[in-house]
Amino acid sequence: MIEKELTFLEAVKINLDECAEILRLDEETRLAIKTPIRELHVSIPVRMDDRKIKIFKGFRVQHNNARGPTKGGIRFHPDETIDTVRALASLMTWKCALPNLPLGGSKGGVICNTKEMSVGELERLSRGYIRAIANFIGPEIDVPAPDVYTTPQIMAWMMDEYSVIKGKTQFEAITGKPVEIGGSLGRSNSTSLGGAFALREAALEHGINLKTATIAIQGFGNVGFYAAKIIHEMLGCKIVAVSDSKGAIYNKNGLDPIDVNKHKEDTDSVINFSGSENISNRELLELDVDVLIPAAMENVIVEKNADNINAKIVLELANGPTTPAADKILYENGVHVVPDFLANCGGVVVSYLEIVQNSYAYYWNINDVTKYLDDKIKETYKNVLTVSREKELHMRQSAFTISVDRVVKAMKLRGSI
Ligand code: NAD
After folding, report:
1. 120 and 225 share a domain?
2. Distance between Cα 111 and ligand 1 center (Å)
3. Which of 4, 79, 141, 405 falls 20 to 30 Å from 272 in CA-CA distance?
4. Whole-prediction pTM value?
């Protein structure tokens, strides 16, 4: 039977139920790991450029703080829903626990279309969102960061607004800031660099020569572009296809990520890039490549198309791109999936370093940051692989098992379960 269209939240809950079975958790604990500790629904009035007030709807979900203050990005997206934010907040709990960061998980979102807003409107919305949630965030409570359609500039406005409210500069309240105001070196491309380190480990494991490997990337935003650039320049791979919301392009001889990015800046899309063939996003997912990198949105590899995935490795830089049913098909077909909260945890690893640097007012050089990230990914990947082999689990089950076990132990020690 084909799985019904699962929501992202349902998919996360199925993964957690599966993990609870593996860990033999009791009913109370199962409920506790699926339930957020706090949810905020806020209305944000913004004076638009035409002088009219528009009310935007925003959310902040703090999922679990047993291991430390919660941490998670903010999305500005027209299709944002509370359920997506709940799913992403939960994923952040497991993403912080997996590389053993002393942080819990949260996520935020505002329903808005940034493409239709002026810079002034965006600034007023960003400040309004922070005013609405200010009493419930902070370095020791919950630390926001950028995500889809939010930028370092937006983080700068948010940090400034929070600092104004508190009456003192609070760099450590928000991460992903520009380096001039407390941002960490290496943060802007850390998700993608962490993904490249994870890919290097996976390729080593599977005997794939990265110098001749072909890569297709869905999504050419912050994460997808840097992934293309780093994997091409640092690992020597050939990027044969990339896409965005308007379509995909393919060139079997390889695309230069810098040139494609320039074309995207000029024309607002990767499509019609000279010397490449326009293809559909579906065709991109099904290309015969060594590595497929979903770097756009959730639920793109589903039961219906999982059998058509021809890549040897799926490196999930997007959050939640593969549904549980698709996961099983990929596993049975011998496709090695590096799950999202392992593949893309580089962002939160460097965000953690940003908080530490802000707290100490002492800043690391780029080599220190890169080495920390490299060591962290290597160690985390090895840990997930070892558990997956020992317990005969696929990589996502293995990663969930490690993270959930750590969070449950912390909850038990603190007496919340
Ligand atoms: P972004 O907004 O910079 O880029 C998103 C890209 O996806 C854009 O190029 C957009 O055109 C494209 N896209 C949207 N819908 C598409 C579709 N249906 N088909 C193909 N392309 C599509 O966002 P980002 O920060 O690069 O985030 C991408 C993914 O990575 C998200 O799932 C996000 O949650 C995840 N992620 C981001 C970070 C981070 O540090 N930014 C960290 C961890 C995970």
Report:
1. no
2. 16
3. 79
4. 0.95
